[in-house]
Structures are given as structure tokens and as C-alpha cells.
Amino acid sequence: MTFRGGRRGLAVLAAVLVAVAGIAWIAWPSDGLPQGQDVVIPVVDGPADDQKVLIDASYFPPEGGGRAPAVLLGHGFGGSKNSVRDQAGQLAEQGYAVLTWSARGFGRSTGEIALNSPDYEVKDVRQLIDWLAKKPEVLLDAAGDPRVGMAGGSYGGAIALMTAAHDPRVDAIAPSITWYDLADALFPEASGAGPAAGVFKKMWAGIFFSAGGSGLNPASQADGLARLLTGSTGQPAPADVTPDQAQCGRFLPAICTVYQQIAATGKATPEAVDLLRKSSPVSVQGRIKVPSLIIQGQRDSLFPLGHADLNAKAIAATGAPVEVAWIAGGHDGGDAEADFVFAQTLNWFDAYLKKDGAATGQAFTVSRDGGRDPGTRQNVLLHAEGPAYAGLGGTVTSELDLLGPDQEVATPPGGSPAAISSVPGLSGLLGGGAQGGGSAGASLDLPGQVAVFQTRPLDTALTVTGSPTAEIKVYGEGEVTLFAKLYDAASGQLAVLPGGLAAPLRVTATPTGTPVKVTLPAIDRRVEAGHVLRLAITTTDMAYALPAQPSVHKVGLASTTLTMPVDAGLAAPAQGPAWWTWAFPLASVLAAAVILLTGRPRRADVAPDPALAEVPLEITGLAKRYKNGHKAVDDLSFRVEKGQVLGLLGPNGAGKTTTMRMMMGLIHPDGGEIRIFGEKVVPGSPVLSRLGSFVEGAGFLPHLSGRDNLTLYWQATGRPAGEAHLEEALEIAGLGAAVERAVRTYSQGMRQRLAIAQAMLGLPDLLVLDEPTNGLDPPQIAEMRRVLKAYATEGRTVIVSSHLLGEVEQTCSHAVVMHRGRLVSAGPVAELLRRGELNGSTRLEDVFLDLIGEKA
Amino acid sequence: MTATGYAPGRTLPLRVEFVRQFRRRRTMVMFGLLAALPWILVIAFQFGPNNNRAGNGLRISDLAMEGGLNFAAFALSVSASFLLMVAVALFCGDTVASEANWSSLRYLLAAPIPRDRLLRQKLVVALAYSAAAVTVVPVMAVLAGTLAFGWNDVRVPGTGEVIPALDVLPKFGIVILYAMVTNLVVASLAFLLSVSTDSPLGAVGGAVGLVIVSTILQAVEALGGLREFLPTFWNTAWLDALAPVPDYSGMIKGTAIAVTYAAVLLAFAFRRFRRKDVVS
């Protein structure tokens, strides 16, 4: 028993340890990512290839050895190679040789910012590819031509596009949230007039420019890198900042000059447009011919989805594979979905660099609001996928009727106060901002500055994916700057401006009305049934440069049609319940079945012995050892015949009670067997119904009366009430009126008598009583003796245990003497006394002491 | 051969066990407390010092005075996390351990009631009492809330949308059922402890302890997704059923977790009881 118990304890301990280890293994933070080696790569660039620049880079050799494809990972504007260190480490873990670098003018690299110009940054990166080609870990397509992919966000995405156009060695790119035409990004115009007539996106331009201008001045940067090369650790000498540097930061002077010009006037000059376009994929149309994964953000008023659309179309026109993903976040904040972007990028490179996996398989992926996760209570995103990228016009369109009269809108002097659609940089400062594509609360139109046209409430929900279009007319004189926004409005709720996006227009108004076709910002949004779409045309927007001169114009509808593009091919993957919601209960029920089936007591040889059918009790070779090792009963055998009153005698601890418990099926014997009327006793043996028992004290429900206790006990046996002989039993208990009181009020003796009465319920053929006279007063003891003797006369059998010898002598016909779990003697009481006579004393007490070997 | 009229399948009828348990002070006090709780809350709302009905918060407690059903949702939300757990742990943890404590268990077993049957009947009765306990609070809260605040449509916490009262009633049924299901884990653990110990308080306390530990672990963000598998994690998922667009995914997960734990724990309880030496 100890052995078994110990083994079970060990098993439980082992199971607990395994569970803890499993949880720890899952929850433990993985060991650190590869940190990479810092390298300084000297490059030469400039229009005349005469400018020496030191590029501060980090090289992450691929994990797993062998030659692996390389990935160039670019950083965003204002960042440095450290901004992408984690992604680089992760890519290296996935078996890519990764090179990150601080672009010229950023971080510790020298040189000045040229906005991804083909003369500067592109040349730098081509030399980084040369450098990669010399690394022994990098897979080569040909001598000097490594297998290389480029990825990065924003500024780092643009350099991927630009390098792919200028260097045929680039094999695949995955640019995200970046531009197609920088001029159009800073001077957008939604009626198609082009950047020359565009409205200056002054807040973003300012943030963009200051991000490049802030930080350390170029002199100390270069100095820092020089010290890095020479290994000196001395502090850099404080450098004087010239007025030029204060003004332009680390920008190339030419760019700085152009910026100052456009920022001062709010108008794009042809030189500015040329300069910006030179740094834009628009200038290299048709030259990017590599597999491209274009990722763009839905909350991005700097580089809206239209840029990704044009990039994708230009690349797809060359026949190269292109996939497009619209993520939830963007430059305006929201969920940047770093994990999703990384997974998609990795998948893309696996397919086109390692060439060992399939591409994402879906040409178009859109992140949509997936409601709240019921567990974490956080908003979750769904990724709707489509087999083809339809562009901003959708696969089909849905036309809605716009209603609304001509309305007058005022342009305030100085452009203030101004409406708010999104506040560039603000959501970034707030740490992500609102999720799910909405911008509730952030958009605000000012009365008097806005004309509103509305659809009727939608009959059915409509999911718009792309750029809605509308046609308006502007009446009046002169040029007017307008902003078109499309709200999703419902009664009782704040109207939502999807993505916080506004489309700027510059219109020359005429008294008869100038018709303008407005291409609204591309969005992906489900407009619920009952909602209306509200087209708002305002004269102001905080994010843009606004005319200073006040004016009033009238805005009306040129057409009542609002065209909504719909991508019918997009479908969210089925969101069935998590696999474990059915697997776990199933496994658990199976485990439960196994636990129950293996725990079934063996049903071997319980067949009744017909020869013993008339023998109330036969015990053979009974043994019981408790868990603490104490041998309570050891090889006990005796037999009780009908009509006997048997005394089970022995000092305390002789094993009397244990034997009786085994008779009742409460304790499993370790060896031997007990047969009652020929049937083997196991827990719950039906033959126990012929046994009445009282062992080790009474057991009653204290809140019930004595009578209720007996009645309910009898009902619990399931036998007919007529069999109970309840009144006879109560008479034996002799409780009188107390039988109606709650048992908790009883004295020890009353409980004892009630318990004996309970044992006698149904007049069982075998009555087993453990120390029945304990706690009874002398008259009650005498009465009890009489009752027991009388009980046995009708062919019934009584077994009484006692350590009081006088008791046995007066009550019992037969006695079994036990000591330390063993049988010492068995036989008629008279025979025992005769044995005592031989030893000189007929007192049972002396016989007993003699038998157990403790006679003085 | 057995005694006249004895059949193992007829032992310990459910009715008998119901009566045995029902007349206990413990049962009465618990039901009295659960039935009184909504009235105490009503009094607290009616006479609290900040009794301004114009409160414009949208938390579930802010909306409690909107009407009977809103009040019931509030009452359930404050009691489900602990009080109902304790009630369930009490009914399931005490049932076998108290018999062992009173020594009446050995006489039931020697009657003889087969061990599996004894356990099954006791489990059924304990679960029935637990289910009744879980039902009493919301039903009484609807009654008390309707009398105090009127029979009004439901305002959804968080969004403030209004749903007609009659649309919500069947969902309330689902909520109550779900509350019962989530309590299965506590019930089965309490039951397992109940067959393992002679101390009723130990069994109840052990099960309540599990709730406390699980709730603490739930607060450890570092565990991430593993927390979904804690037995108490989904206990508030029923709130999703009252939303304008009900989301049952959390409740499905919660049900799966509850069934998973409960099946294994109950199997262990039966296995243990079969093999146990009853020495109390």
C-alpha cells in the first residue's frame, strides 16, 4: 500500500511538473534576437559620383548556415538602422542574410538627405548590394549579383521601389506605406488636376521636413562615425551650427531651398514637382519588374491608398507578380499590424527569394474591423482576401442617390478656424489612436463652411472598397479650395469619417457653376443598413494650406449619383470556433471515460458460494494493512453460524473495528475474503442489505429529528416502508418524545440507542454492533443484553464487538478473540471458560489475558 | 440473495436526497441570502447618497436603474464573479464531505447504496441546488428591479443602445444557462474535494481557492493567450450575449473550457470514491 501510494504521489508530481514545464516553455520569452554586426560601408554617390559617404549599417548573417538570400531592410523617415533592428533579427532567424543601414543623412551615416534620389540614395544602396555580393553567406544568382529582396516602410519602402527600378539585381520587394508620387502626396488634387494645382498638405510636409532636420547636426554626426572607424572614444567637439544648418538640418541644400519656397507660398513650383517626382516611382514607371508586395495603410493621410494603387498598377503592367494589402494603420496611427506585415513580407520573400513557398495566394488583402475579442476585450482585425486586385474602382459599383440643395460655403479670412479631418502626427503622439478605421470624435466641420449632401438610409449594408466618386458644381467667382469628405452617419451616433481622410480640390468657380468630378479618398468600410452616407464639402481643413482671402461660394450637386466601388471578390476567411472548443471537451470526455474505466474494481470471483448460503459470516485469510504500514488485520479466519451471538473480543487496536468495516464493504481488504450468506463482500454488495450495522458511533443528520433520520435512512435503502419495522426499532431506542427533536440536541447515549435502532431497521439477518453498550447506563445495558439475546433467537445472528469481557460473557454464546490483527481463539464462550479452568481461573478476563499473552 | 425489496437501482432516490439536503440550515441561509441580495441592491440604489437618475455613464452599474432587466444584468454581473461561485462550491463541496463528517456516509454505503450510485445521486442533487442558486439571483433581480425601476427596455452597457425587453428575455435564459455552465468547473472541483476529505469547509474552501488563484493568474498579462484556458477566464463572456449583435464565440469557448475541466474532475471524483477506504 505504501508502495502504491508513493507511486501515485510520484505520478501526480510528475504530471504537475510536466504541466508547469509545458506552460513555462510556452510562456517563456524566447532568447534574444540576433544582434547583428555593425559595419561601416563607404560608398560614392552624387550626380557626378564624387561624393564619399560613410553608411552606418548592420549585417545579420542568416541563421542555419549555408548561402541564403539577402534582404535589405530600410527605415522610415527620421529613423535609423536601429528602428528596424528587431525585424532584421527576425528575418535573420528565418534564414535570410539581412542588411540594415541608416540612409545618408540619418543616424550615424554621413551625407545629406536627398529623399531617395536616384543620384544619391539609390546609388548608395546599389553599392550595399555590391557589398552583399561579397559576403560568403549570401546566395548569388551570378557573380556580383546576390539574390536580394528589399523591404521597408515609408521612406524605406520608397527606396525599395526606387532601387528595384534602377538595379536589376533586386529580385523582390515588399514596400509598405510609401509613395508613388511625392509631389502628389504633398500637393493632392482630387479632381485630377495634378500636383501643380494641388493643395499643399502643409502639416504633413512640416512634420516630414522637421523629422529630417532635427537631431544632431551633420558635422557631429560625421565626426561620430569617424571616431567609430578609428576606435576613439573621445567626446565629439561641440560643433558650431551655421544658420544654413539650423534652417535645413541634414537636408541637401537644393531640397531645403525648394521646401522653403513651397512652404512659404503653399504652391507647387514646376521645379519642386520635378524634384519630388525624381524621387518617386512615378518617374520610373515600367522599370520595376520584380515581384512586389505593396502594403498600404487605411489610416494614412500622408500616403493614402491611391499611392499603393498606382504603384501596384505600374508594376503589374510589366507582368511582374503583384499583391496588395491594405492594413488597418498608417501614418495617422491605428494598428500598424507589425506582425501581419512581417508575416506577409516573409511569405513573399520565401516565395520569390527562397522560392520554396507559395505566395500569399491572395492578390488582395484588406484588414477589417473584426469586433472585439471576447477574451481580451480588445478590438481584433479580420483579413478579408480576394483572388484579384480590382483597384480603387472595385469589381462592381453601387450607385446611391445624393440629396441636398445648393448651399453657400464661406472661406474664412486667413483660413481660420479650420475643419479637422485628421491631425497629422497626433495619433502617433497619442500612441496608436482609435482602431478599426474609424476616426470618431476627431473630425469636425464648421458651420457656414460646409455643404452637406446625404443619401437615404441604406436598405442593406454596403461594403465599399475603393474610391467613391461624386459630381458637384461650384458657383461663384475665382479660385476656391474645397475639401470633400464622405461620412458614415447614423442617427444617435457620431458620424464617422473613415480613415479621417479628406480629398482636397482646387476649383475655379463660375457663376453658372463649374462641374467637378470628385474622387473621394479610397477606403474600405462596411456601411450598415439604416446608415446614410453624407458628402460634406468644406472650405477649410487644418492639415492643408488655405487661402488667406475670404470668399463665399455656392456648392451644389452636378449629379445626384454617388458611385460606391465594391470588391465582390473580397471575403473574410470563415471564422469558425477555435479548434479547441470542440477538441478539448471531446478529449476531456475521452480522458474521463478512460479514468473511469481503468478505475473499475475487478469483478472477479464474486460468484456466491451455495454451500455457504446459510452461513451468516465466513472470513478467510483476511488481511488489511493501512497506508502508514500498520497491519490492522492479519490472516484472520473465522466463521459465524446462524443463531449465534458472537463476541468479537480484543483490546483496543486489535483490529475489531477494521474487520467490521470490511464486513460493511467500507474498506477494501488487501487479502482474503469475507462472505456473508455465501456472497463475497465488496463495496456495495447487494447482500449487505441483509446486514444491519452500527460501527464506531452514530451517524445522523444533525438537523433532522430522530424519526426523520430513521425514515429517510430507510427510504434511502429503497426498500418498501412496510419492511422497516420502524416502530419496533424506535421502541428499542426508547427515546420517547425526544424522537421528534433534532438529533443535534441528543446526548451521547440517545444517539447510540438511535443508531442501534437504525441498525435493526428491517430486522436484518445479521446484526453487527461495535461496542453497543458504550455510553449506556446500567439499566440500559441490561435491556440491551436482553434485546440482543432475543434478536438472535429467531434464526438471526448478532456480532458484538467489545473490549469489556463481562459484556461478552453475559451476552454472547460464542467469542472470537483477536490481538494485533490476528485471531487468537474462537469458539463457544463456555469452551473458553473451560480452558480457563485448566489454567486456574474461570474469569473470562484471565482467560483473555492468558490468550493474548499478557498475563502477569 | 438480498433482503426483501432491495434493489440497487432504487436506493437513495433523488427525492430523498433533496429532502435530506433541503432541511439544512446551510441551504436555507444560502438561498435566503441569494434571494435577498437583489432587494439589498435595490435599497442601495434607491437610498444611496448619489441617487441621480440623470447619470449618463454607460457602465453596467450606471445603467442598473434603467429597468428591471438592466438591474438584473447588473445584479448578475456583481454576483457571478464570486457570490454564485461560493454558493455552487458550497452545494457541491459540502455534499459528500458533510456526510463523512457526520459519519452517516458509512451507513448509507452499508445500506448498501452502490458507491457510483450514491455519488451520482448526490451530484445530481448538488448540481440542481447550484442551478437553483444561479437562477434565484437574476429572477429575483428582475422582480425587484421591475418593482423598483419599472419594466423598461434594455440599454446596452458601453454603447447605450436600446433593445426591446421582450427580445432580451430569451437571451437572459441563455445568460443564466451560461452562468450555470461556467460554474461547472467550481462545482466539479468542489465535488472532487468533497469525496477526498471529511471536512466540508476544506472542500468548499479549496474550490473557492481555485477561483481566487485563477482570478489572480488572469491578471497576469504576461501569460498572454494561455489565460484563455484558465477556468474563470470566460466567466464574464455572457455580457456579449446582451449586446445588440450578440457574439457567442466567447461563450462557446467558456463552455468548452468548463466542460473540459468538469469532465476530468468528475471522472477523478468517481474513480477516487470507488477505490476509497471509508474510514470516517
Describe the structure in your own words.
Chain A is an alpha/beta fold and about 850 residues long. Chain A has three domains: about 230 residues, Alpha/Beta hydrolase fold, catalytic domain (Rossmann fold), CATH 3.40.50; about 170 residues, Galactose-binding domain-like (Jelly Rolls, Sandwich), CATH 2.60.120.260; about 240 residues, P-loop containing nucleotide triphosphate hydrolases (Rossmann fold), CATH 3.40.50. Chain A has 22 helices and 34 strands. In chain A, the strands form eight sheets. In chain A, strands 1-2-4-3-7-8-9-10-11-12 form a ten-stranded mixed beta sheet, sandwiched between helices. The longest helix of chain A has 26 residues. The N terminus of chain A is likely disordered. Chain B has about 280 residues and is mainly alpha-helical. Chain B contains ten helices and two strands, in the order H-H-H-H-H-H-E-E-H-H-H-H. Chain B has a two-stranded antiparallel ribbon with strand order 1-2. In chain B, a hairpin with a 6-residue loop joins strand 1 and strand 2. The longest helix of chain B is centred in the middle third of the chain and has 35 residues. The mean pLDDT of chain B is about 90. Chains A and B meet through helix 1, helix 14 and helix 16 of A and helix 1, helix 5 and helix 10 of B.
